[in-house]
Amino acid sequence: MHDDLVQKIKADPSYHKLVSARSRYGWTLTWMMMAVYYGFILLIAFDKELLATRIGNGVMTWGMPMGLFVIVFTVLITGIYVRRANGEFDEHTAAIRARVQP
């Protein structure tokens, strides 16, 4: 019985659209995160002087806000994904489940 339900879900065209949209969205956010993270790492590796440059007359350097940006960006991008997953993707999943269950 369980295998029959799985086969019905896999045969549903809406399921394929959902999987495709969710994967594409996830990979887009992944590539954005990788660009920010690896960009910061490359900046550390190749332009330490920029990161060590002081901001104004204080002791803070550019590396501190840039590192904080990476952390905040990670939290934001995770929140963006969770919001869409709990909203749009869950609605589509529930609709597919309702359509294929007897």
TrEMBL record:
GO CC terms of this entry: plasma membrane
UniProt superkingdom: Bacteria
Keyword annotations of the record: Membrane, Transmembrane, Transmembrane helix
Transmembrane regions: 25-46, 66-82
Family annotation (PANTHER family): INNER MEMBRANE PROTEIN YJCH
Name under which the protein is recorded: DUF485 domain-containing protein
